[in-house]
Amino acid sequence: MAQQRQSVVTPERFASGMAWEQYLNHVKRNREKFEHNYRETVLTDEDVAVLRALVERPDGPARVLALAEDWCPDVFRGLPVMARIAEA
Q: What is the spatial distance between Cα 77 and Cα 64, in angstroms, rounded to a whole number?
């Protein structure tokens, strides 16, 4: 089986996605859970330092792509955490 060599997520497709605030404004279900999990996610100074060090590496992560639906428990638990990490 041949391996896919190019991502289906082109720069244009990535740019057409929503940022955290846009997504949160779009949420119709479980909004209170999204907001609660966002409020309750606190990163320590050490967490922030480690995340920044990872991003500064030449091969470090620079972007996050989340495929999300507001009815999904994994999303309303995990996406607010990812938003806090991205903000850091």
A: 16
Pair of tokens at residue 74: 């994994």
Question: Amino acid identity, residue 29?
Answer: R
pLDDT string in tens for the chain (88-residue length):
667 678 888 889 989 999 999 999 999 999 999 999 999 999 999 999 999 999 899 988 778 889 999 999 999 999 999 999 999 8
Q: What predicted TM-score, i.e. pTM, was given to this entire model?
A: 0.81
SS3 content of the chain, % helix, strand, coil (to 5): 55, 0, 45
Cα atoms in the 13 Å half-sphere on the side-chain side of 75? 16
